[in-house]
Write a structure and sequence with these properties.
By secondary structure, the protein is α/β, with parallel strands linked by helices. It has 18 helices and 15 strands. The N and C termini lie far apart (65 Å).
């Protein structure tokens, strides 16, 4: 059911964020007002992706169709929006679904905006951002967000998250696992609690040691508990361990889940309510949380605050890149030269041909140029493969899963043999465009292979599908550079690419 909160008005820039959650899909539309955003409308559809998995983690046809139908409805609301003004984040269920690409391909037929599948840690970071931007500032806060398939736990100070985790447990998955017969018994709640204890056992000491001044809960499960407590006469809506314990006792008095009748508990929330209550009760008990306050801000608000140019994700991703270059002791001066050469070659290419998502792919190529040598921290032998592994598996704030995959892929193929059959299939980007970026990065790496303290320039020309690289004759070690590029041309030939190396004797170049 859609809830229209305020009609759009004026000519301010409008932006939209969509959260494809495991339980519900949410759309929030806002307008940019000065340095802040103002919510215009909220829309919510219960989709229950998390209830549609088979034993092999494939989504069934019914759950996929529910999701597609919802996106078709959202597309109508977003008619006229530019691509840059809409961001969609898919979370736990599409992260783990083996057939996620089937869902994405079918979604593309009815929904014209790209869907990003974000890592769990990135989801946690965005949740923290959404909570922080919508709460009165405190020194240090603990944020808990219980979704349909995962639970995010964050401690942060001001706008900076300090400790983030995404745990594979949610209100849908726990309700199905521990209340399969819909029976509300003390035994079922106890079994669910033990499961939650096992999930948080490895992280709870870190959270208790770091500490917090206030605990805040966000999203549907915690909002539902907050509302139920108000319905029970607790006007402050504060969540405490005693109130939760009493709530579990009350739930056990009902014959089954479908018989639950609690003031302010909606019909659509009731079927997954026991699992969510189990998670929050156990987390409060294990982390020694005295009370939790509800926040209306969460993932969607976090996305919105990063969409406006003044709060652009570029700064976040650049900080991530700088952190990784420091962590893995990358020779920063050298990779900066590689980046300059890479972007110069790309600019020349774009004057002669085109790629889709030009702005974003240019940024990704620049970040890959800075990070392609992180694998040297492990071993020179096969370091391009080490780089790809590190970049695929590192925590990279600001990047969605596919963007991270692009950077890892560019690093994997920046040297040695070109095994295109090992290149992953992308959803947000065309593989032919990724191959263009691979070619450009490879050339830039060879041009800078002597690791001199300067940028090596060259001219790139496209002649009937053949790439021509013209190197100036007046640079040092022209013969050696020519030989290196000829070796590169042979590697291209094996991949059925064409590269021609020419020494440019024109002094004007």
């Amino acid at each position: 059911m859609d809830e229209l909160e305020l009609e759009a008005n004026g000519n301010s820039r409008q932006i939209a964020a969509i959260d494809l959650g495991s339980n519900s899909f949410h759309l929030v539309v806002a307008k940019v007002v000065g340095n802040d955003i103002q919510i215009i409308s909220r829309h919510k559809h219960r989709v229950r992706l998390a209830s549609g998995f088979d034993k092999k983690n494939n989504l069934d046809e019914a759950s996929i169709q529910r999701g597609i139908d919802c996106l078709a409805t959202f597309a109508e609301r977003l008619n006229g929006f530019a691509l840059d003004d809409v961001r969609i984040a898919a979370t736990h269920s599409l992260r783990i679904a083996k057939n996620a690409k089937t869902f994405l391909k079918r979604a593309a037929a009815v929904f014209p905006f790209p869907i990003e599948i974000i890592p769990g840690i990135e989801e946690a970071r965005l949740i923290y951002s959404g909570v922080t931007h919508t709460q009165v500032e405190t020194n240090k806060k603990l944020v808990i967000d219980i979704g349909g398939g995962s639970t995010e736990v964050i401690i942060g100070k001001e706008l900076q998250p300090l400790l983030l985790n995404s745990l594979q447990m949610g209100c849908v998955s726990l309700t199905e696992k521990f209340f399969p017969d819909a029976q509300l018994t003390a035994k079922n709640f106890s079994n669910a609690s033990i499961f939650v204890q096992q999930r948080i056992e490895s992280i709870k000491a870190k959270y208790k040691k770091l500490g917090w001044d206030i605990a805040i809960g966000s999203s549907g499960t915690i909002k539902a508990i907050h509302d139920v407590f108000i319905g029970q006469g607790h006007e402050d809506g504060i969540i405490t361990i005693k109130r939760l314990k009493d709530l579990i006792t009350s739930l056990c008095e009902f014959e089954s889940i479908d018989k639950i009748k609690l003031s302010k508990l909606t019909e659509e929330r009731a079927p997954v309510f026991p699992g969510g209550v189990s998670i929050l009760y156990t987390m409060m008990k294990e982390l020694k949380i005295e009370e939790i306050h509800f926040s209306s801000g969460a993932l969607r608000e976090g996305i919105l605050y990063e969409m406006d140019d003044r709060l652009n994700r570029t700064d976040i991703r650049m900080r991530t890149t700088e952190t990784l270059t420091q962590k893995y002791a990358v020779e920063v001066d050298h990779v900066e030269y590689v980046k300059q050469t890479t972007l110069d070659l790309l600019e020349q290419y774009l004057k002669q041909s085109t790629i889709k998502n030009k702005k974003e792919l240019t940024q990704l190529l620049g970040w890959a140029s800075l990070l392609h040598e992180v694998g040297l921290s492990i071993n020179y032998q096969g370091y391009h493969k080490h780089s790809a592994y590190l970049l695929q598996n590192s925590y990279m704030p600001g990047f969605n899963r596919e963007q991270q995959q692009v950077i890892a892929t560019l690093s994997r193929f920046h040297r040695k043999s070109i095994k295109l059959e090992e290149c992953p299939e992308f959803y947000l980007y065309r593989n032919e465009d990724i191959e263009v970026l691979i070619r450009i990065l490879r050339i830039a790496v060879v041009l800078n292979s002597q690791r001199e303290e300067k940028t090596v320039s060259a001219e790139l020309q496209m002649k009937n599908g053949v790439w021509q690289i013209l190197i100036p004759s007046n640079i040092d070690d022209t013969a050696l550079l020519f030989a290196d590029l000829e070796n590169e041309a042979q590697l291209w030939k094996k991949a059925e690419w064409s590269l021609q190396v020419i020494v440019n004797t024109d002094d004007s170049n």
